[in-house]
Protein: Glycosyltransferase 87 family protein
Amino acid sequence: MSFIERYKIPLLFSIAAIVFYISFGYHLERSDFLKLISLYVTLFFIAYIFIERLKLNFWFLACLGIIFRLVFMATIPNLSQDFYRFLWDGRLLAQGISPYLFTPASSIALGVTIEQSTELINGMGSLNASHFSNYPPINQFLYTVAALISGKSILGSVIVFRVIMILADIGILYFGKRLLEKINLPVKNIFWYFLNPFIIIELTGNLHFEGVMLFFFIWALYLLFKGKWFWAAVLIAVSVSVKLIPLLFLPLFFKWFSKKEVSTALNLTSLLSFYAVIGLTISITFLPFLSWEFIQNFSTTISLWFQNFEFNASVYYIIRWIGFQIVGWNIIGTAGKILPVLVLLYILAVALFRKNKTPQQLITAMLFAISVYFLLSTTVHPWYIATPLLLSVFTKYKFPIVWSFLIVLSYSAYGKNGFDEKLWLVAVEYILVFGFAIFEIIKNDLFNLKKQSNILKPNLK
Structure:
């Protein structure tokens, strides 16, 4: 049987997907929600066919994932304006000016010259232009590389970013495959990340750097599970210096270094050394920017995501509604301080009382830690879900895949007449996601109980 005959159906689906991705990247306005969701649902269905229904070669699927990403190479992101801020920070830093000390608006007022400054500020929006940068140093380095390579070209910088994103995803595919083999899970699981239209659109298409952060983090986990904790610690620190999210996972390594076959003193030494290497490496990446003013500006900007911004939240929206009923105003200032504390308490409880001594136990703990964090967050942009999605492929839980499908509903907020969040669609999203999560938790708990009861049954033979 020839290649064409054998792969006729997959090739037809592949061509259809390429056409739909071209339409998504080149002919879609964010405000056209009906077209957006129609294309997205169709692409998700095709991804499901590729991953679950057709028995395809690993390398065929890997090549498809790369081809689908290359479709977006010459497009300007159409669902997010964040990349304009990336360009601004990179061009500012290329001139030796810290983006942590000057907002775009204040830079202009001080007479700093940035190529295409008006276009960049209009693109990022006045709200973004009034804040200091909150992107960590490794991100800033990548922004600067794009600025130096592309010069005055916005599209040139976008292409540099996309090359970085695609290389990071290929790295995730490589280490993800090896990690799945190590923990005896189906290798096809990694394609729920690599072929997922959510990842292709949000990371490669819309230029969010979650994929770069996740590349370093998954590489780190792979090394950790091979016993190379020093280099794992370095890579975790690098991932934090791309995006701060991995900081949430640091307490969860406590039980990993508490294995019975090693003495308690050696466990404690290894754990403290692990954290010390992470802390030192993070400090080194931040050192070129370090100043008291930087600390103030960076922490103030980070706090905005907890106490000022609201988007696609779940539990917080319920709390906000209760607040309006009781006190008559938005209580985000108070809730935004309390909810992170609850997340921290949950993570500490998981770190102290859950086993977390096998790779799958540790990654499952991370999955639930990040899920609870987003459950209690005031702002959940679509690309945030990349982290729980990738973690889920190494576990028994699939609710983040459902989430990556339903998160597209959040784009209904961007209509032709401006921003108008549809709370009933937010409710649909979270009811289905967390309903499915609860179902999976109950199912897995029942399975574990049955497994334990079978082990305890006396051998009657």
In short: The mean pLDDT is 91. Residues 177 and 187 are 6 Å apart (CA to CA). The first helix runs from residue 3 to 6.
